[in-house]
């Protein structure tokens, strides 16, 4: 069995040994590979040529049009994939998932299509959601075109406030080429289904503009497909609400408005920049090296390391997804993938209290910008490009969007000093700690998420996400102190909670698995070998199905984070716990995770999925300036073997060191055993390995 380990629970997946002999077809991982640029172009060309769809280019034109928003791989059904992977069956039909915005019709909507077969598509069919739920047009993600129109509408609406803004900030909207104002938009966009009213935080456009709110927040209604009908519905300035732009402008003109004057931003050493300032002594950077060369193999989207083998892809919609994860040739998981990243905030301003970010709705998988060699990944890493077709009229290459590298952990995987208690030792043995890391990032506007999957030589797999980037901050008012910290003169760092959701489709010794928990409690019993004495000791009770302690009840879209762990039977119509539509319609989303766990199905000896939520509370502080640092802001979980092997599988490693004294207890002559050659690498200490062991 394999252990799904989190800090709060001990959860065991009990298996039924039903696996049979596995086939070894050529390039099996390719059935899970992301679409190539040629495939992306082929899908777009095919759909654009279908007259019944009436598609227009994504860029330009009106909002009320039919357009192609997203194209990505539609993974094969599990049954056909396993038939191919294990039994030499036919290669599954390769298809694309295409999202179309149908805005040029009487009842606009969003429709998903399966397009294939690839690489030469010739047909399509409609993809439905569980329960036949439709996607209203108001639930669609934002597009570049809508942002451009939103900016134009905001600039026009803010014209009467230009004197106020110039006096208070020194920056403006009108005829702007320098010293401009910009905005960050908040979601959800309203308080109920069908709405598209967005609070906009006005900011000075300088480096790190997320930390430069101007004190003005604007509620702009952009629900109508015709931008000429968009309008400002409300404003908030320096702690006060105003019903119209005119009301705020007149208050300023009369001199009755308490003005929030911002200091002139310096030309150098701006607090929101990365420019070094202050005193800090540091030496040369440390480096990761590979003295014996790379110990992993990368063939297309197939990654192999030690006993590990897996296929991977980077979904445009939601990010990293692993398939066919094996250790020692045995499949332990069919799928392991990121589902959603949520951050919900508190605050005194309307934008802050409205902020409930669900980053799949911002296509966090396609926010995988270039990784810097030597900073984001070690110098020795292998870098991979990604191609996305998202809100564009063709595939876009994202250079160095992923990296793979072996990482020394700085702590041994295991070690022991066997003391002879006479000033010497019987033996010393240790095994270096290393792991292979598969990494990408998602920069969703202000926040940067660093996504890692780590493979250890003892059969342990770790998922980890680090949060960094700029905090989501609002304008400071005394009333706001309840909801965060004053991190700069006019800046409130708003309290928020990060929650990240994963899908873990474990197939341990086959797909027929069960779920049980072990409840560890202390017992107080009579001592059987000493009359009248008591023994207090821990003991474990294995129990049936559990879902873990719930979080406070939230809207339907936030049902996922109510559970640290929920286990359900796997269904093809439940591929994901969230969707890109949830952000803009969290009240009635097309995917409702609660329906996955309320169907009263048995989960004994079934194909099971574990849905895992990890997270942390972030109370911003001054040290989050300019950016939140990664130490202390990382969460994840482990998949660990639990009585699956006869012993630690890392005993197969050739990297241990064993030292035995040849003349105990003097220990003046030592036998040192190593199974890897000494390294001539420049980044390794030039002296040979030595050990004394006396004390």
UniProtKB/TrEMBL annotation:
Gene3D superfamilies the UniProt entry points to: 3.10.450.40, Copper amine oxidase, catalytic domain
Signal peptide range: 1-19
The organism of origin for this protein: Oriolus oriolus (Eurasian golden oriole)
Domain Copper amine oxidase catalytic: 287-524, 562-650
Keywords linked to the UniProt accession: Copper, Metal-binding, Oxidoreductase, Signal, TPQ
CC cofactor: Cu cation
Enzyme Commission number(s): 1.4.3.-
GO CC terms of this entry: plasma membrane
UniProt modification remark: Topaquinone (TPQ) is generated by copper-dependent autoxidation of a specific tyrosyl residue.
Residues annotated as catalytic: 359, 447
Residue ranges annotated for the Copper amine oxidase N2-terminal domain, each copy included: 38-123
UniProt xrefs under PROSITE patterns: COPPER_AMINE_OXID_1, COPPER_AMINE_OXID_2
Chain ranges of the Copper amine oxidase N3-terminal domain: 140-240
Parts of the chain that traverse the membrane: none
Presence of keyword Oxidoreductase: yes
The protein's name in its UniProt record: Amine oxidase
Family the UniProt entry places it in: Belongs to the copper/topaquinone oxidase family.
Lineage of origin: Eukaryota, Metazoa, Chordata, Craniata, Vertebrata
């Amino acid at each position: 069995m394999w252990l799904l380990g989190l800090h709060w629970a001990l959860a065991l997946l009990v298996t039924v040994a039903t696996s049979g002999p596995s086939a070894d077809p050529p390039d099996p991982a390719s059935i899970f590979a992301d679409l190539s640029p040629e495939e992306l172009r082929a899908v777009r060309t095919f759909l654009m040529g279908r007259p019944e769809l009436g598609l227009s280019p994504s860029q330009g034109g009106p909002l009320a049009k039919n357009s192609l928003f997203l194209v990505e791989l539609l993974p094969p059904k599990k049954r056909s994939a396993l038939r191919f992977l294990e039994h030499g069956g036919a290669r599954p039909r390769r298809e694309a998932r295409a999202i179309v915005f149908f805005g040029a019709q009487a009842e606009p909507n969003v429709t998903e299509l399966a397009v294939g077969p690839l690489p030469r598509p010739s047909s399509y069919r409609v993809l439905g959601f569980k329960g036949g739920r439709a996607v209203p047009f108001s639930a669609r993600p934002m597009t570049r075109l809508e942002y451009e129109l939103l900016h134009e509408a905001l600039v026009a609406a803010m014209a009467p406030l230009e004197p106020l803004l110039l006096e208070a900030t020194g920056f403006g909207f009108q005829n702007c080429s320098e010293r401009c104002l910009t905005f960050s938009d908040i979601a959800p966009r309203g308080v109920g289904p069908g709405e598209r009213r967005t609070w906009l935080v006005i900011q000075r456009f300088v480096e790190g503009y997320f930390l430069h709110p101007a004190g003005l927040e604007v509620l702009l209604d952009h629900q109508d497909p015709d931008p000429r009908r968009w309008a400002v519905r409300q404003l908030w300035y320096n702690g006060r609400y105003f019903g119209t732009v005119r009301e705020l402008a007149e208050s300023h003109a009369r001199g009755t408005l308490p003005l929030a004057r911002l200091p002139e931003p310096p030309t150098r050493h701006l607090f929101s920049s990365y420019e070094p300032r202050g005193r800090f002594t540091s030496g040369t950077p440390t480096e990761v090296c590979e003295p014996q060369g790379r110990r992993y193999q990368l063939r297309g989207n197939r990654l192999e390391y030690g006993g590990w083998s897996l296929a991977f892809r980077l979904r445009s919609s939601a990010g990293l997804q692993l398939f066919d994860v094996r250790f020692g040739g045995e499949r332990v998981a069919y799928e392991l993938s990121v589902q959603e990243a949520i951050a919900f905030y508190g605050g005194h301003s309307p934008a802050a209290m409205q902020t409930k970010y669900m980053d799949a709705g911002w296509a966090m998988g396609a926010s995988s910008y270039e990784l810097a060699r030597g900073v984001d990944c070690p110098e020795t890493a292998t870098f991979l490009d990604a191609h996305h077709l998202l809100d564009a009229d063709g595939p876009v290459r994202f250079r160095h969007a992923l990296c793979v590298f072996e990482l020394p952990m700085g702590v041994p995987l295991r070690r022991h000093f066997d003391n002879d208690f006479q000033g010497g030792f019987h033996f010393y043995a240790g095994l270096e700690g290393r792991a292979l890391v598969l990494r990408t990032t998602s920069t969703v506007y202000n926040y940067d998420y660093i996504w890692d999957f780590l493979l250890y030589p003892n059969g342990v797999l770790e998922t980890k996400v680090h949060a960094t980037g700029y905090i989501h901050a609002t304008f400071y008012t005394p009333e706001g102190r309840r909801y965060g910290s004053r991190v700069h003169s006019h800046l409130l760092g708003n309290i928020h909670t990060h929650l990240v959701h994963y899908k873990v489709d474990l197939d341990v010794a086959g797909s027929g698995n069960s779920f049980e928990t072990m409840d560890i409690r202390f017992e107080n019993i009579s001592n059987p070998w000493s009359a009248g004495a008591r023994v207090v000791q821990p003991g474990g009770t294995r129990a049936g199905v559990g879902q873990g302690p719930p979080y406070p009840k939230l809207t339907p879209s936030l049902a996922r984070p109510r559970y640290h762990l929920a286990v359900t039977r796997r269904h093809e119509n439940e591929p994901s716990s969230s969707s890109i539509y949830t952000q803009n319609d969290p009240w009635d989303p097309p995917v409702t995770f609660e329906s996955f766990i309320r169907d009263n199905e048995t989960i004994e000896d079934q194909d099971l999925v574990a849905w895992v939520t990890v997270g942390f509370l972030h109370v911003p502080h001054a040290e989050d300036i300019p950016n939140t640092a990664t130490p202390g802001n990382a969460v994840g979980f482990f998949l660990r073997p639990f009585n699956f092997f006869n012993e630690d599988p890392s005993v197969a490693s050739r990297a241990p060191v064993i030292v035995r004294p040849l003349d105990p207890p003097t220990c003046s002559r030592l036998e040192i055993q190593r199974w890897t050659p000494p390294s001539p690498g420049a980044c390794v200490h030039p002296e040979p390995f030595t050990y004394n062991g006396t004390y």
